[in-house]
């Protein structure tokens, strides 16, 4: 579950932090506890990114549907 602070992150902020989390996990050298905390943070950030992308997809779908409806009106279908 994402926090209110996470919900305020822009897509770009969440993506950039997620990239850093992945980099740190791939680099290794962290304790098990640190690795788990990083993984959990990564999951939260991925959810924020998913939320933004789903919203963008919905906006695109709505715009395309509106354009299609206008095209049908113009063509008399």
TrEMBL record:
Heterooligomer composed of large and small subunits. Belongs to the XseB family. One of its GO terms (cellular component) is cytosol. GO terms for biological process: DNA catabolic process. Bidirectionally degrades single-stranded DNA into large acid-insoluble oligonucleotides, which are then degraded further into small acid-soluble oligonucleotides. The lineage of its organism: Bacteria, Bacillati, Actinomycetota, Actinomycetes, Kitasatosporales. Keywords: Cytoplasm, Exonuclease, Hydrolase, Nuclease. One of its GO terms (molecular function) is exodeoxyribonuclease VII activity. It is found in: Cytoplasm. InterPro entries: Exonuc_VII_S, Exonuc_VII_ssu_sf. Its EC number is 3.1.11.6. The keyword Hydrolase applies. This is Exodeoxyribonuclease 7 small subunit. Its main location: cytoplasm. SUPFAM superfamilies: XseB-like.
């Amino acid at each position: 579950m994402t926090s209110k602070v996470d919900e305020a992150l822009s897509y770009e902020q969440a993506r950039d932090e997620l990239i850093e989390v992945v980099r740190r996990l791939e680099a290794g050298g962290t304790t098990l506890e640190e690795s788990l905390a990083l993984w959990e943070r990564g999951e939260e950030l991925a959810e924020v990114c998913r939320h933004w992308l789903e919203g963008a997809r919905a906006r695109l779908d709505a715009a395309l549907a509106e354009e299609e409806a206008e095209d049908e009106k113009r063509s008399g279908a």
